[in-house]
Specification:
Elements (H helix, E strand, L loop, with lengths): L1 H15 L7 H25 L3 H7 L2 E26 L5 E26 L2 H10 L1 E3 L8 E2 L4 E2 L3 E5 L2 E14 L2 E8 L5
Antiparallel strand pairs: 1-2, 2-7, 2-8, 3-8, 4-5, 6-7
Length: 188
Amino acid sequence: MKRLISVIGVIFVLFAGLPGLATAADKEAQRAEIRKNSAATLNQLYKTNPGTRKLVESAAGYATFSNFGMKILVLGGGTGQGVVVANDTHREVFMKMVEVQGGLGFGAKKFRLVFVFENKEAMNQFVRSGWEAGAQATLAATEGSHGKAYQGAVSVAPGVWLFQLTDKGLAAEATVKGTKYYKDDALN
């Protein structure tokens, strides 16, 4: 009997760490951490480029992600999590991201992303379908049809602007990468 109880205890400990079995308190703690990272990301963006505050606040919504990526020789990848916030309702949708990279490079970096959605359609499309990126953009861009340009931002889709902020880390890379953003079913 003691052996059976020990086996059940080991099984319980193993399964307790699985994401699908997280308690409501665990999930709320994860949401709180994502919100904290989101606020820090926005504050870093506003400090770096003060004019972005008005852009973010007047947009239909925004998304912030905290990511970690690693590159060793010709292969690399990364993961992250974040939140999409609708400015009019303050509704939050928690999301994850995963990326794979190919190309020559070596290093690790922690970085933050801020997506700014000019309209609800672009924001809802991002939330509903996720989003896949096929290239790494590092330069400022303009949107020719509307004549808009935001310093430090890249237009990644119609009505969607992206700011990338780096934290600690050094990466020298020439890459082609694919990134997928998708809803975090466990936190929504």
